[in-house]
Amino acid sequence: MEISSFPFLNQEDLSHFLTSFQEMDNVNVNGNNNSNNNNNKKRRRKGEDFNYYDDDEETKKKSNGFTDILASIMLLDEEEKQEQELWFTEDQQDKAFFDFNQNQRTQAMDDYHVQMQSHYSDLDQFDESRKAKRARRSAFAITSTVATAAAADNSASSSPPKPGSAATPHRRLWVKDRSKDWWDQFSSPDFPDEEFRRAFRMSKATFQMICDELDSVVMKKNTMLRDAIPVRTRVAVCIWRLATGEPLRLVSRRFGLGISTCHKLVLEVCSAIKGVLMSKFLHWPDENKIEIDKEEFKSISGIPNVGGSMYTTHVPIIAPKNNVASYFNKRHTERNQKTSYSITVQGIVDPKGVFTDVCIGYPGSMSDDQVLEKSALSQRGNMGLLKDVWIVGNSGYPLTDWVLVPYTHQNLTWSQHAFNEKIGEVQRVAKEAFARLKGRWSCLQKRTEVKLQDLPVVLGACCVLHNICEMRNEGLEPELRYEIFDDEMVAENGLRSANALQARDQIAHDLLHHGQAGTRYS
């Protein structure tokens, strides 16, 4: 037996096994010789015979054990050889599969390379043909230009030039031809005023007045490349967009302009309205106007010294990228069962529903009293500039020295009931003004495409245009009426002044005992 047949045994183990096998062979040979020599001898005693047979059995057991070990070793060696052959076979299969895939990829890349070469060759031929056509067109244009110049020289030599004629032809930039029939029809002098008012929420005279006011700021000059868009068209694009809330792609089709151009016009005109018209049509009234407003509000409610009615509404927006949680409107989300984001518009109106002060752009998560505290109106009131003037608000505002709000606790007295009803009549003036604002300018009713940073300018322009329409008695069509759905929340700290509490109680007492209450409880 060769030692190399058992590679997993070392030299010492093999020597030990060989020595054991040799001893076993010697024992077997000696046993056979002894048995042959002692055939004729007498058997030993019975006890000695038993010991002899026991030794022989033990020797045979050892021999059989070593034989089993050897058989196991040979079986393990055979299994190892089979595993090596299996591994070799699998390795060959993997290699063949890899080679097949590599050949397929190489063939595909070769085919793609051939196709690309064919494509580029076709492109080269196409470019050559285009260059040839351009060359022929250039030659034809040069020839035509020379002929035209020669004819012009001949005519100039035969007749004197006309005054004001251009010496060189104007260059023109290629502009996509779009239909402007819709706007040409509306801008026609013969177009009915009622239809114009229904479309643009104002009469043709009011529209022309706005165009005249903005002419110096909005007007652009013609260039050698293209003619400027007229002022009337610029203003019309903006007002139509605010009035209908149509997507820019539809606005561009109506006016025959590009989408980006319409978006730019809306922002430019809104900025011009804020810069030019806001100071004329939306400002805090002077002392004489305040006294007039006090008398009109007193005739409405019987409450003295009321200089304005205050209300805060929300305008829906698309979820902003930054500070999204601050613009989340929890109340609108719960009511609409849809995630809502908004910004606030706080406004003060006179008895006719004309805005005298606005605060625009604070996040929709803020309550009415928080918006009021951050507004310029609050700074004016805290500085004492609203002395002897009440600004009437709802229960969402706190009671201060200049803000008058209704009673909010339970178990009201008769005088407190009467006071709340009269406060509600003043509040109704502001709420109806905001309803007309949103009804007239439909862009405020739904989420707009305007970016968040540009939205305060657009909302301010809507408030200015609202004032112009109200001052010029521009009516609102019945189908455009809008109902306000702003939830009123009681202010956390509803009492900010003890003097205001006493003044409110006195007003409530006077309303009831002077016969001005007129409550439905009496």
Automatic annotation (TrEMBL):
Residues 28-49, 150-171 are annotated as: Disordered. It is found in: Nucleus. Its cofactor is a divalent metal cation. Belongs to the HARBI1 family. One of its GO terms (cellular component) is nucleus. It comes from Castanea mollissima (Chinese chestnut). Residues 311-467 form the DDE Tnp4 domain. Keywords: Hydrolase, Metal-binding, Nuclease, Nucleus. This is DDE Tnp4 domain-containing protein. GO terms for molecular function: hydrolase activity; metal ion binding; nuclease activity. InterPro entries: HARBI1-like, HARBI1_dom. Residues 28-39, 150-167 have a biased composition (Low complexity). Transmembrane segments: none annotated.
